[in-house]
Amino acid sequence: MRELAGAEISAQVAQMCREANIYLGEDVYRALQQAVEREESPTGKEVLRQLIENVAIARGEQIPICQDTGFAVFFVEWGQEVHLTGGTLEEAIHEGVRRGYEEGFLRKSIVDDPLRKRVNTGDNTPAVIHLRLVAGDKVKIAFAPKGGGSENMSAVKMLNPSDGVDGVINFVVSHVREAGPNPCPPIVVGVGIGGTFDMVAVLAKKALFRPLGQPHPDPFFAALEQQVLAKINDLGIGPQGFGGRITALAVHIETFPSHIASMAAAVNLNCHACRHVERVI
Amino acid sequence: MEVKRLKAPLSDADVLALKAGDNVLISGVIYTARDAAHKKLVELLDRGEPLPINLQGQLIYYVGPTPARPGQTIGSAGPTTSGRMDAYTPRLLEQGMKGCIGKGFRKPAVIEALQKYKGLYLAAVGGAGALLSKRVKKCEVVAYPELGAEAIHRLEVEDFPATVINDAYGNDLYVTGAKAYAR
Fold it and tell me: Domain end: A89, A123, A146, which one?
């Protein structure tokens, strides 16, 4: 049994919070550079140029890429041969978030009670933590700060199995059309298909953690990702909704087996600031 | 790409000279307010009490910046989703506000009020918070300090980039822009 101290998790998490919010990943940066080449609208090109310049300013001046430094979302794969010492995993992650958001001058955007008082918790906790126990003695932590504007433009729909491929495509594309400028295009589109009502939303979120430029391993779903992407970009919404060719940078699909009576589908949108970092401890 | 210069606060003539789709660089004084501050302002109007700021000619920027590091004027400061302010915007236009800066769709009531009171709805680039922060030269809290990032700030901006979405003539770039590039 390998022992791992909660303090080590906290230190890594604090660093991940700062890093993800200030340094945009290479994958997204490359996608923005390709987008500026392909965009036909002059205003759309200018928007993309501003986004690229924004990345450099954020890095140089240590300013967050976006003022919405997000809900802290984690996917943790915990090797079951690892024993955590010094508290619970939740406490360790929350301590990391608390420190990362304070030391990184990040905005605290979480309120305690969602309906009545909505008082800011002051430290951006709690985080949303998805935990899976896996084989081995390693711990993989993936973190994404999820902005509210794009998260609000998300949906789950319990489709009929007979709706088929077209049903999924129509659901996703019409959803992106309705969202229009609100999720800060060019967006990354996370799609979940299968599982239950709760599971499919997690799949769509997980899809947003996949690096851009990495297609689904199954050629059928990889082709579907490209097909949906082309249809979304034909909507003409363009960067920031000002009109243009590049409405989405990528579509990522994640699937899970389904009940014989169901075909759950979910779409979780991310703005162009598709921030995600990963550590293996 | 043509860019027009705009000096804030605005006159009716400034508003009427701009059309949806125009790109502008704003210099001068603007004010920030988002959900909580809007609610407070409209509550004052409901009670017939004076507002903490004079809205004549002003542009309101929907932003909740990140905390500034020591030595920085303001933290990351990009626009937030404007739709959440829809319920309040017509009331503020009625008070002489000349426009607002945010991102995303507005309700028909706002678009109509922009025509009625001669106002503009502009969008700044969402997610360009670091770049936009560099265009803010001065920043001070002028009302509701207890709201933190949501307090009303007076900003002095220089060459702050924005695009006109809804003009005083009923045009909407979110509709015409997408139509021009759809296929």
Answer: A146
**Three-class SS of residue A33?**
helix
Min Cα separation A201/chain B (Å)? 23
Q: Residue A230 pairs with which residues in a beta bridge? A: none
The two beta strands, A277-280 and A139-146, are: antiparallel
Q: Which CATH architecture has domain B3-180?
A: Alpha-Beta Barrel (3.20)
Q: Are residues A221 and A239 in the same domain?
A: yes
- Provide the number of structural domains found in chain A: 2
Q: Are residues A204 and A103 part of one domain? A: no
Question: Please, where are the H alpha helices in chain B?
Answer: 12-16, 35-46, 89-94, 108-116, 129-133, 173-181
**Which candidate in A38, A67, A246 is best for mutational testing of the B interface (most B CBs within 10 A)?**
A67
Instruction: Tell which residue, A246, A74, A230, has the closest CA to residue B181.
Output: A246
Residue that has been written with the tokens 């433009």 in this structure:
A153
pTM: 0.95
pLDDT per residue as tens digits for the range B37-63: 999 999 999 999 999 999 999 999 999
If asked whether residues A101 and A167 sit together in one domain, one would say no
Which of A63, A111, A231 to mutate against chain B (most B CBs within 10 Å)? Answer: A63
Calculate the alpha carbon distances from A218 to A98, A140, A194, A214, A215 in Å: 39, 23, 15, 12, 8
Per-residue pLDDT tens, chain A, 281 aa: give them: 899 999 999 999 999 999 999 999 999 999 999 999 999 999 999 999 999 999 999 999 999 999 999 999 999 999 999 999 999 999 999 999 999 999 999 999 999 999 998 888 999 999 999 999 999 999 999 999 999 999 999 999 999 999 999 999 999 999 999 999 999 999 999 999 999 999 999 999 999 999 999 999 999 999 999 999 999 999 999 999 999 999 999 999 999 999 999 999 999 999 999 999 999 99
Q: Does A99 lie in the same domain as A10?
A: yes
Domain that holds residue A155: 149-273
Contact yes or no for A236 and B177 at CB 8 A: yes
- Same domain? A74 vs A200: no
Residue A273: closest CA among chain B residues belongs to which residue?
Answer: B127
Length of chain B counted residue by residue: 183
Token pair belonging to A175 = 């959803």
pLDDT at A98: 98
Does residue A110 lie in a domain region?
yes
Contact (CB<8Å) A67/B66: yes
Q: Are the Cβ atoms of B177 and A46 closer than 8 angstroms?
A: no
Q: Is residue A8 domain-shared with residue A139, that is, in the same domain?
A: yes
Q: Which of A146, A170, A204 is the last residue of a domain?
A: A146
B109 touches chain A (CB under 8 A): no
Q: State whether A121 and A12 are in the same domain.
A: yes
